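Pipeline run #58 for the internal structure catalog. This entry was flagged by the ingest filter as a single-chain record with no existing model, so it goes straight to prediction. Upstream metadata was stripped on purpose; only the residue string is passed forward. Reviewer on rotation: M.T. Logging verbosity set to normal.
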Amino acid sequence: MSATLAVLAGAAQAQVTYQQVTNGLVDYYPLDIVVTNGTTITTPDYIGGRDMILNNMNSGNLVAATRPTLNAASTNACLNFSQVGGPTLIYYASKGQNAVDGSGDFLPFCNQLNASMSFWVKVTASGGYNDTRFFGECDNSSGQSGPIWLWGSSSGGNGISTDQHMHFLFRENSGGAVPFETLVDGTYQAPFEGYYWVQGNSFTAANPLDGSWHMLTMTIDTNRVIDIYVDGVRDAGPGSTGATAYTDANGNPNWGPDVPLTNTYYTTNMYSATISSNPPPNGYVRWMWNATFKTGNTAFGGFKRNAAFNGGIPTLMDDIAFWKRKLNSNEIMFVYTNGLPGIQINRPLEIKSFAADFPEVGAGDTVRLSWSVTGANTNSGGLVISGVGDVSQLGLTASTNFKVTANQTFTLTAHNGVAPDVSASASIKTFDGVDSNWHLIQRFDGVFADTSSSPTGISGNGWTSDVSDYRGQFEQWNVVTLNSGNGSNKVLTPRNGYTADVNSITGFDSRGATAYGALNGLTLSPGQMRTLFFRFSLQEAPAGNLNGTPVFSDMDFNVGVTDSGLIGPFQSLVYPANVGPQLKVYRSSGGNFDGSGLFNVYAGDFSGTSAGTTNSFSYTTAVDPAGLQTNVNYYVWMDISNDNTHLVVNSDGTSNTVNMAVYSVWMQKQGGVRTNLFSGYHADRDYATFNVQDIPTPFLDKVFVDIGDEDITTGTAGAYIGTNMIAVDDFYLSKAGFNSSIPRLFDITAVAKNPSGVTIKWDSLGSMYGTNTYTIQRKSALTDATWTTLAKVPSDGDSTTYTDATVQSGSAAYYRINWP
């Protein structure tokens, strides 16, 4: 940007600065250059990246700008829309707008409230050109039947020969009244009365189509009151020329009938001006106008009508600008006097982010690539991803899905033809042997280094560790390498045990630890049903010692899915834990609290009332009185139905809806059978009491693990947790519905006979505490009555190899591998 400019154009004009007038500037087209982008030719938008495509034009249409100005730096070249050889125009195709919440692309301009548009134009025609235009916006899906907004010559008489006023056509749909519209979310928008501006009656008092340069400006306020300025001065409208007089909502002369508004966008349920039966967007109330459209073209020099671009009036045009706010009259005069010099010719081009949802996926799975870019073209050639192709039309902040069959690095290159190209890369690994019905979320081996010495816990690759709670520092979840057999396996586990805190009045003051991974594009939306799969294993930790008294290890482990922000460890992560579907593995401090000292599994069924839980599950009560075993792999399937709301009846007889998800849990011990622990439990998601800023949403967007905190009175036997006491591994999410299979298929990948024997290689799941073993058996002939067990082999990690050196040379042998 240039240094701040200031001007005092007249005694009545307040001082305006360049910095002030560029506030809210979202698009600026100086029309000084044209750029070839792939298969298209564009003229760049130096602010918002909404580059205009040239139709039937090229660099030969650039001519010297001769428009008047006090600032020579604001004039350079301009575009000549000669209409020679066919229609000549520039246009931008909107990426779409959401009529429910107003989000989406800025253009088309006629969709906006509180906005401004300005440009210079010189109509070069000496006569004729009846019913022609030099600016237009219209729906790009319905042709002439859609809304349309045009500026041009009169539709009657001999056009510019007899009438040099600027005329307007502002038409809603077919031009007549329409009934209410049903929006995409099933809600209604009140009817539009069908008023529209007609070219014959709606025009300026001034004569800007006189063959001279003029700056035309339009502002739209928050009530859709339109003001039109010619050369920085508000126009008086057709009433001042003796034609039809109109008055806007502010009592000022206007150029056509008042554009009607409605604030009665409402749901099919209860509606009130201030209260709705549903939260936004279903209960959203805002100003609506039925003529706005979700997508459309903004064109200069011509417009779209009858499903084709048609030529407008031969013109010269320069310095097109759009603001996302209404300029005041002093600011408009400043732009007329000074132009907009200082906007950088080398438009900033930046890739703010480019990443894959997951750094490792199952081979053959689809991964989402997401990016956020500023300054690139959104026409052909603006955004290109190696191996994927041109993604420009998806927008500057967007995503695309791509199937990955092998390790691959994707490079995003952003281009605008003005600034140097910029690039960013995202690498994705693939993991063989994953069932095609499952998504790999994280197995910790493929992309993580061992972080066992890290004081801040697991970080990166979509995973986050909290670093403090309300009272101080606490232990962290880390990636730790466990060795067994001939291989190794990385797991997620607390970094080290709780130790005495000399600064704490409670002696052993364990803070707890939380870590979570983002589900990104696999986030569970309302109504979706998925299965979360994971493994865990426990080991007994040695007793601690506090003033000569043994202190036995505690366990307060939680795993599940949530939409919570997870700020700090959950001091109240007891079932149902307020955060969503979850399972708790629990032991009460070596028997000091409840006398059992057993590892248990708990879960709670939340009623949504003051009664709290209506059901609870206990493993020691329902499945095995001896509790969970140590040094054993446990496989867990959590079937989740993301019900956004659940109707409950309160103790006083009233009813309300609460945020919930319904879930069931299955578990299998290695060597055992898959067992249903419980079904149809409701997960409490009302965690506002933990953090009032963290209100539940309709989505479940992260998987989490947590170790709860404990406080132990000084000098008294109590709780601590030993290093690596629990290991968690292999998070997967089913692709559709519930799934009861183990996500990584057991599969023999190679068999080789050599002088030293027969070597067999197979896919495997890495061991946790040496607990994952395979039984190798052999027969000499298929007719043999029994199999001979050769060995029990611990897993080597992702793949396991066994060599049978006892096989005789030239003999036949048949093998099988049993697991678990």
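catalog note: The helical segments are 18-21, 329-338, 619-622.
catalog note: The chain has a mean pLDDT of 79.
status: ready for reviewer M.T.
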